[in-house]
Automatic annotation (TrEMBL):
Belongs to the PNP/MTAP phosphorylase family. MTAP subfamily. Homohexamer. Dimer of a homotrimer. Residues 5-248 form the Nucleoside phosphorylase domain. The gene is mtnP. Substrate binds at M188, D212, Y213, D214. This is S-methyl-5'-thioadenosine phosphorylase. It catalyses: S-methyl-5'-thioadenosine + phosphate = 5-(methylsulfanyl)-alpha-D-ribose 1-phosphate + adenine. InterPro entries: MTAP, Nucleoside_phosphorylase_d, Nucleoside_phosphorylase_sf, Purine_phosphorylase-2_CS. Keywords: Glycosyltransferase, Purine salvage, Transferase. It comes from Almyronema epifaneia S1. Catalyzes the reversible phosphorylation of S-methyl-5'-thioadenosine (MTA) to adenine and 5-methylthioribose-1-phosphate. Involved in the breakdown of MTA, a major by-product of polyamine biosynthesis. Responsible for the first step in the methionine salvage pathway after MTA has been generated from S-adenosylmethionine. Has broad substrate specificity with 6-aminopurine nucleosides as preferred substrates. PANTHER family: S-METHYL-5'-THIOADENOSINE PHOSPHORYLASE (PTHR42679:SF2). Phosphate binds at S12, R54, H55, S87, A88, T189. The keyword Transferase applies.
Amino acid sequence: MTEAKIGIIGGSGLYQMEALQDIEEVQLETPFGSPSDAIIVGTLEGTQVAFLARHGRHHHLMPSELPFQANIHAMKQLGVEYLISASAVGSLKAEVKPLDMVVPDQFIDRTKNRVSTFFGDGIVAHIAFGDPVCPQLAQELATAVASLNLDQVTLHQGGTYVCMEGPAFSTKAESNLYRSWDATVIGMTNLPEAKLAREAEIAYATLALVTDYDCWHPDHDSVTVEMVIGNLRKNAINAQRVIQAVVKQLAQNPPASEAHSALQYAILTPLSQAPEQTKEKLHLLLKKYL
């Protein structure tokens, strides 16, 4: 099978990577169903990468409809060890302005209906998740952003991403609550991905692309759909430049990550006693521990 050590999940506005060459569409099935779309495997900066449009290339999936397990499992099937999530977000801080980029290091879960584990059905695992993104991969992202001097873009390294259920945006009361928690940005997708990537022993980090201020901002009512779409387009162009730079860095010097052994002490069920059907379903994740 085609393999790629670096995976990219593109969010709203980022449905393809223009610079990908020698591309191949890979249709994968997983024990958890089909991914959001075909995965596009190609070369970027001379390195094989796998790209997936999170919501589908025609943006037909709502955040609560995303097949998170299938998306991460498919990346694991392709041999992905480093997963970059590019995601549109709203800002919860005055200093984090539209077009800025944030590399968060924490998450707060406000989702209600998201499956965010591969385990169950007779096998119990509890991953360590105090640091929910890979610090080494996050640093690579921040270094790449800083190196590019992108027009109108300020880098914010660190910060908290609130993951809400959606699809409606926050009320003002909710938005101000999150601000009182000192959260930085708000989105609808990244926390289930981060949990599943950790269970799959894939290093994961988020490149959060600010499209607008959340509704707490006094000027929010002047934000138009056209402005947001314009920012999505600019963010997509900037994100592709950052991802190219990160891929180049990772290819030259892939960092060690604790995520790559996340299951070593996480599985509580003796695998010799676990149901064969569940072991078969999770074989890709468990095989080095069987």
